[in-house]
Amino acid sequence: METTNETQRIELGQEAIGYLNITRKWTMFLAILGFIGLAMMIMAGVAISTLLPLLGANTQIGAPEVTVVMVVMLLISALYFFPVLFLYRFSVHTRHAVETLSPEQLSKALKNLKSCFRFIGIFTIVIICLYILIFILAGASALFLNAF
Fold this sequence. Notes:
Layout: H1 14-55, H2 63-100, H3 103-147
């Protein structure tokens, strides 16, 4: 028996709405901590790139190394920004959905939650692939070095 989206319905009871409201509070807390962590990462990147040449006066730390540190910190911050933003949006839309009992707001909230987990999932797959590639290259280089 085939049904269409128009005939399918999910109704949420008070208990489910309560769970959503509690989840919303925790996700807002985590999103705020994420934004604070993001700001601290950016400030740390600026501080490191400013202080690194001063601390390395006796070493050969130059502009290219400082630039690499700053670019890496900005890339990490950019990657960290998106899941935190999606989590924050989920919390905001869920609050509106719970307050107004709006299915549209709940749909927007769940869309942002999906985006958050999809981003984290894809990022995790990429990191696992990089680890596998690093292990393969390390093993190949060990075999290559042992051959000589």
